[in-house]
Design a protein that fits this description.
It contains 15 helices and 2 strands. The protein has helices at 10-22, 24-30, 32-57, 63-89, 94-107, 123-163, 191-207, 211-224, 227-243, 247-273, 280-295, 312-322, 358-387, 395-403, 413-427; strands spanning 177-178, 181-182. A two-stranded antiparallel sheet has the order 1-2. Helix 1 runs antiparallel to helix 3 and helix 10 (247-273) crosses helix 11 (280-295). The longest helix is centred in the N-terminal third of the chain and has 41 residues, at 123-163. It starts with 9 loop residues before the first helix and ends in a 5-residue tail after the last helix.
């Protein structure tokens, strides 16, 4: 019997995919639908070939890897069960539910499977791939600085017009400034997440000892105007000292951060109580931090829905008080796309809890069991390996996890592929 064998250069396919994800926002601005289809095809191809390879070659050798696969299986089972159960609990047909679930899987759930795409990399290709990845990250850093620089020179409207077709431009970002700089989109299409991306790139550059690019990453963080990124950077400072075993400076930095925080809060409340209108950037920064906590419990008049002023924490408490049986495994898959698209259907109970406090949305979806797995994979295990003389690249999943307390960082696929590589090294890498 004569048979034909086919082979592909997986390494090149991986590089092509990451390069396309880097240019994803630009591609969507030119032709949104084709670029989305190309992105899905490339990521789907990587996952398809990596799963085939893993089925033949991958060997389960440690408990942490097993827990990672349990996490992925858990997410997949939620998607599968929602597909078959919800036609009986709503007025929608099986095919309508299937369509919604496939769309949500592409937008959101798929991201958690991206660490698998690195499994076929051979040990001989690891160093070469990391050099390529660092090069890609340098482009992302340079582009953020470039976009902010041109915007400040008066070309902001050029970016707004160009990006308008991609769907990332809304009225909140048109001509919007923060700390005297524009709210730029960069390669992830979100000013808030752009700064978080560059906190990640900073530690990638530390990992490769790229000292000049560490400085440029820090500049990109500042240029992103992301207050979430600023806070995460402050939190990473003491952790980095702990990682470097600088225990005395670590304790001193904690004391200093505590003192500065207390002084800043007292000064902010003094300005507010006395109606002093100076220090606008300071008041905006501290006000945003305070607002983060207050809106998690109560929403403003503008954010009011269905006559309620409850924030997402109270909504969670009320829901699980009435549905205690769902507390451990969660409500199930909810939909991150626009609520307007689901109002015409019987899906009001399955809309995203909130995009501003994504960690609460994840808990709403996957319950106590899901949040324990998420915390272990993206925070507890990385921080344990980091403090046991691990590579500085293990800061990246910790940064990713902390950003979940504000925005959903897994939605931009470029950002997720950057966060996935350290997860692969922690849970899936084996010398071949």
């Amino acid at each position: 019997m004569i048979s034909t064998r086919y082979s592909i250069n997986y390494y090149n396919l991986l590089k092509i995919t990451i390069s396309f994800l880097l240019l994803g926002i630009i591609a969507k601005s030119i032709a949104k639908t084709p670029s989305v289809l190309i992105e899905l095809f490339l990521l789907g191809s990587l996952l398809f070939f990596s799963l085939i390879y893993a089925a033949q070659e991958f060997r389960l050798k440690k408990t942490s890897t097993l827990l990672f696969f349990i996490f992925l299986l858990y997410l997949f089972i939620h998607t599968l069960s929602a597909t078959f159960v919800r036609p009986f609990t709503s007025d929608l047909s099986f095919f309508d539910i299937l369509l919604f679930n496939i769309l949500e899987f592409r937008l959101s759930t798929l991201s958690y499977f991206l660490p698998l795409v690195f499994i076929p990399l051979s040990s001989a290709n690891i160093d070469k791939f990391e050099r390529f990845l660092i090069f890609i990250l340098k482009i992302s850093i340079a582009y953020t600085i470039f976009e902010q620089f041109l915007s400040m020179l008066g070309l902001r409207s050029l970016f707004e017009s160009f990006y308008s077709n991609s769907g990332i431009v809304d009225y909140n970002n048109v001509g919007k400034k923060s700390f005297g700089m524009y709210r730029v989109w960069g390669v992830v299409g979100s000013p808030q997440l752009l700064g978080v991306l560059h906190v990640m790139t900073l530690f990638y550059m530390v990992y490769k000892n790229e000292k000049h690019w560490v400085i440029l990453s820090f500049i990109a963080i500042l240029f992103s105007t992301s207050k979430t990124a600023y806070l995460i950077m402050i939190m990473m400072g003491p952790l980095y000292l702990l990682y470097k075993k600088q225990y005395g400076i670590f304790l001193l930095s904690l004391l200093l951060i505590t003192m500065i925080s207390l002084i800043s809060l007292n000064f902010y409340f003094y300005l507010d109580a006395n109606n002093i209108y100076g220090y606008p950037n300071f008041k905006k920064f501290i006000g945003s931090i305070i607002g983060y906590f207050t809106t998690s419990f109560h929403v403003t008049e503008e954010g009011r829905q269905d006559g309620l002023y409850e924030g997402p924490i109270f909504v969670l408490i009320h829901y699980f008080s009435n549905n205690p049986s769902e507390l451990f495994f969660g409500k199930g898959l909810t939909y991150s796309f626009s609520p307007e698209k689901t109002l015409d259907y019987d899906l009001s109970n399955y809309q995203y809890l909130t995009s501003d406090f994504y960690i609460l949305t994840f808990f709403d979806q996957y319950g106590i069991f899901g949040i324990i797995l998420l915390t272990y994979i993206f925070f507890l295990y990385p921080i344990t390996k980091l403090l046991k003389n691990g590579d500085s690249i293990y800061f990246v999943p910790i940064i990713f996890f902390l950003s979940m307390f504000h925005y959903p960082p897994h939605i931009p696929k470029f950002m997720m592929i950057i966060a996935s590589y350290p997860i692969y090294k922690l849970f899936l890498h084996e010398k071949k």
